[in-house]
Amino acid sequence: MNGEGLANHIERLSSSLHRLSADRKAAGDEGCSQGVIDERDRFAAHQSLVTVIGFLNSQPEWASANIDFALRRLLISLANINEGRTEGWLTNPGQNAPPLGVEVQTGRGRCAGVTELLMRAHLTREASARFVVENLSVAAIKRLAPQTTRSGPNWKRVAGWRDNVRKAGNSQGSDALVDGYGLQLAIAVPPGKSVQEVCRASLVAVARMLAMFG
């Protein structure tokens, strides 16, 4: 497929996902119950997968390579779960689950990445961590670090997330923490924007992600 055809498919993909995002926001604005929001989120997850799978299959070389196999399995499993069936491959019977959810660890990782980016922009470790605390919503702060306040020495907890993720083999780290950190560092600063602006936007995104999990 030529570049123009691929661009058209990407535009349709973007439009579909933006529409689903707008529907999700509307559900929150309407004051729907958590049960209704969860139902809409399951529908949005299903439709998002359908949209992405359709995009992948629009490219003949990708379709023939079967690169969407995991997404198709997930799509079917979500439909089964929505109808009340269990999907064993989506559960982990291990008894040593970490006490914090993946969304919390990922959020901490992104905050660690924000701290690192600001330090690379020549802010001090303390100033960078305080920036995170000051620019996160109160609800997000409570999810990520229940004891953190907007004043006092608790910025050290945020700085500690950065320290943990940078220490190879640190037992306090996790895959989600490292992934969130890497995700944040991969975000480029566009022309005309400051590092601080990009970091503020990232912290808003972290708050939105956490809000999805109650």
Describe the structure.
The structure is a single chain. With 214 residues, this protein is mostly helical. Helix content is 69%, strand content 0%. The chain contains 10 helices and no strands. It has helices at 3-29, 34-57, 60-65, 69-82, 102-120, 125-135, 138-144, 155-166, 175-185, 195-211. Helix 2 (34-57) packs antiparallel against helix 4 and helix 5 runs parallel beside helix 9. The longest helix is centred in the N-terminal third of the chain and has 27 residues, at 3-29.
Tags for this model:
single chain; 214 residues; mainly alpha; 10 helices
Topology (elements, then pairings):
Blueprint: H1 3-29, H2 34-57, H3 60-65, H4 69-82, H5 102-120, H6 125-135, H7 138-144, H8 155-166, H9 175-185, H10 195-211
Helix pairs in contact: 1-2, 2-4, 5-6, 5-8, 5-9, 5-10, 6-8, 7-10
Which structural category do the helix and sheet elements fall into? mainly alpha
Q: Helix share of residues?
A: 55-70%
The percentage of residues in β strands lies in under 5%
Order of secondary-structure elements: HHHHHHHHHH
Which regions contain 5 or more consecutive residues with pLDDT less than 50? none
Tell the overall outline: globular
User: What is the arithmetic mean of pLDDT?
Assistant: 82
By DSSP, the count of extended strands is 0
Please give the count of helices: 10
Quaternary state of this entry equals single chain
Q: How far is the N terminus from the C terminus?
A: 42 Å
Largest beta-sheet characterization: none
Give the radius of gyration.
20 Å
